[in-house]
Amino acid sequence: MAIYVVMQPPAGGNKAEDAIFVRDSFTWLGFLAAPLWLAWHQLWIEAALTFIVMALLSVLGERLGLEAAGSLLSLLVSLYVGFEGRGLRIAALRRRGWREWGVVEAGNLGDAETRHALETADDVEQEAPMPRIVPDASLARPPQTGMALGLTHTPGRP
Q1: I want to staple 10 with a disulfide (CB 3.0 to 4.6 A). Which of 41, 47, 97, 115 is the partner?
Q2: What is the Cα–Cα distance from 144 to 49, expressed in whole angstroms?
Q3: What is the pLDDT of residue 51?
């Protein structure tokens, strides 16, 4: 079973169809083509930084004669995007005003969407206001004005 983080759109779009489901797992495409994957998900700053860091590491490795070290460090950047790419995407959605609805566990994206739709339908039914029950004041017990045990004030007595 996979875990999906459900992101609700900014104010105005609370329908289940408008939600974005981000799978919380390693992303192979993010690992294999980190800058392209980030750009595909409109993480422009992260994509540019990843490209610049990977290029600098490659150039630095060539200049110092440590091509293998430069490649391994670029691999580490790709590995970071593979593991944290989905988290970066969720953070970018939060910055854009999206809010986290919750987490759905499902076998695939279609099942996650179905579970989310069913849970939001239950929430709408439960949000109906309950009728307010006001007790009848005539049935209330009269206040006790007799002796009291302890340091309490008895109304009407000095």
Answers
A1: 97
A2: 75
A3: 93
Are 37 and 17 a contacting pair, CB within 8 Å? Answer: no
pLDDT (0 to 100) of residue 145: 60
* Burial class of 49 by CB neighbour count within 10 A (0 to 12, 13 to 18, 19+): middle
For residue 145, what are its two tokens?
A: 């004005």
DSSP secondary structure letters along 81-102: HHHHHHHHHHHHHHHTT-EEEE
User: Which element (helix H / strand E) includes 125?
Assistant: helix 109-126
What is the greatest pairwise CA distance in the chain? 98
CB-facing half-sphere around the CA of 73: CA atoms within 13 A:
18
pLDDT at 80: 92
User: Is pLDDT at 134 greater than 70 in this prediction?
Assistant: no
Closest Cα to residue 35, out of 27, 44, 25?
44
Instruction: Check: CB of residue 7 under 8 Å from CB of residue 100.
Output: yes
Distance CA 104, CA 106 (A): 6
